[in-house]
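Incident log, structure service

09:12 report received: a user says their structure output differs between two submissions of the same chain.
09:20 pulled the input from the user's history:
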Amino acid sequence: MEISANHEKNIWILAHQAQPDLSSLQDLMGGGYHLQPFAIRKSAVLHPPQKVDLALLDMAASTQDAMTSIMRLREDYKGPLAVLDNHPNERRHILALEIGADDYLQQPVSSPVLAARIEALLRRYQQAEREPSAVISVGDLTIDATRREVTKNEKVISVTTVEFKLLWYLASHAGIVVSRNDIHLALYNREYNGIDRSVDMYISRLRKKLGDCPAHPTLLKTIRGDGYLFVG
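09:34 re-ran on a clean worker, output below:
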């Protein structure tokens, strides 16, 4: 698979090893990517290089260390973040996305698939930067994509990364019923498997945080058999 690019993309590779193993990523180097390895240490500041297009975190570590690294990374890095993980644990997957990862890839993953996911994630961020408005306001609710902040009655509402992405996606499609499959593609970059109920859980959490009555919601409505509707 050939990766075309207008410029060489800088991929920041982070791992909990003394020296990140780039052997499985060698094929990316021939596709317009420059890999910048970084060994994570407990005392090290996870400050991104001056020029980085995407961060790729190898989560081959304990759950606590891996999640702590994501949170530390997000303190200073606002760009695309994908994680590689060799633990077949769905809870790790969901938690990684909840606290700041944009995409999650289960190892082993082929170079063509990895490259395609990286390109898709970069396109999503580029599209977001071209959005004509980075702020959506509905009544006393304001959703600010630039600051990744939700406020109601001028008070900041604490939401996770996934909750914000879901709310922004629904608000961006206000008045339109969006399916679970649409949401899974937007949030996880994969199709809905017909079983996963994580979106229902996030909707429930958002309703509670936004003060939208779960029994009779007026803002985030469930359209049975079809999906969800943000009433703008």
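09:41 both user submissions now match this output. Likely a transient worker issue. Closing.
09:42 reviewer note: Residues 1-6 have pLDDT under 50 and may be disordered. Residues 115 and 216 are 44 Å apart (CA to CA).
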